[in-house]
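sorry to bug you again but im stuck and you know this stuff better than me. what follows is a protein written twice so to speak, once as letters and once as structure tokens for the fold. id like you to explain what the token line says about the fold, in plain words if possible. anything you notice is useful, everything is just below.
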Amino acid sequence: MRAFLTSLLLVFLAACTAGPDTDALKADVHERLELALPAGFAEVESLHRRGSQVDTKSPDGESRRIVYFDVSLKLNRDIDFGAWNAPGIAGLISALGAGPKGVEGIITGGNKAGDVITAHGTARYRQNGDAWELVVPAGYLPPVAPGVVTGQNEGAGAILSTIRKVVDAFPRNTSPAEYAAIEEELTAAHASIRARLARVSDGYAIAAGAEHGQYLRVARALFGDRDSRVVPLITRGGEENLRLLRAGKVSLIVAQGDAALDAYQGSGPFSNDGPHASLRAIASLYPEPMHVLVRAADGPESVAGLRGKRVAVGETGAASRTTALRVLEAHGLRPEDIDARALSISAALLALQNNEVDAVLQVIGTPADSVRDAQKDMRLRLLPLSNEAIANLSGTRAGYFPYTIVRGTYAGQEQDVKTIATAALLLTGTTLSDAEIGSLIQRVFEPGRDYTALGSAQGAQISLATSSVGLPVPQHIAATRALERLSAK
């Protein structure tokens, strides 16, 4: 028995140490950091290899391993990881292959020389003879949240039982579209119920976004602790959030700046709703640049080159889809000039991998975990927008501004990519008092808050310096005053 256990232990240790050794791993991490951050900004103070495992999703014929490590980085110069249009948190997370809550030490307002950043990192390698080659940092998938369990009284329980019977009664050949409609209606009902419960409990709800999405993660990072009276809600995204706010079902929302402007003016997808004149911005949170993604090997070379191609422009009703169509229009492409596909970002990237679409357009904060995860299975390339399109969009439409996805934001991205962005905004209507708005500003822009450690990489870009950038709708007067007070300190 002892001999058997000894053999088993040796096999386990061999599995844990397979792949590149610590020196090779450290050299690869250093090279990635040099691409992601300005030269000399940080040095690897310590790196500890924590084992490895077989990559079960390796392509046929390849032997791959995922290596896990802990790393400490010492900053040699001051750096604001939250700065927009500059090397920052996106490149750092992509270089280290870190996941939600995997990086600690990022300070709102900027880090100083001598600060130490720690991270739980990952890297994916493939075997080439006796050598191991770095493929990409392993990336991550957000953890799946457990199902919601609530206590119900007899009446609510009876209603839920009836709904379950209706859903279960659908025949086996029910179409995916019908199932999607059921899911959408149940999700909307759940959001509405939680919003009302939050108000009943002397709190208020914030309409965030889809499960695993950036809006929900940043809302949870902002308001997820036990002392908060704000309840983050799962929704279908910005356009639905704006309608929930207008209907009075929530008091706070997160939405794209361009979608907020459409709602305020009663234009675009809100043309049938009329102007939402009482809509007010509390603050800008972080930039959401337009990503135009193609396969590196055989994708088009320009946005104009998408004419006649199969293009995933986003789901119907999503704010990102509206932006994508405007970007195409700015390059002289009408909807009928492309084969438009209504796909979510995850479905679109899978279709790109399977050669079912030729390009994916998506407005999303960097680093986008869905993009990073897709890089495990295919090499991607970001297409820049033309200078004329950038000037047209940012010059004629409030809510858009020129933006650069800096090199190193994604693994293998060696060049800056010019595009446009809109800001992710924190918005409200008329239900909150000036004191509540002031309290929210104090909470969101609290000095020294580490949003990355709280699970939101985009939260690291929340800063007083950019709190009013990209606001296309009026800012709440109480928010303006509160921001001025904080800036004066």
Notes: Residues 15-136 form one domain. The chain has a mean pLDDT of 84. The first helix runs from residue 2 to 17.
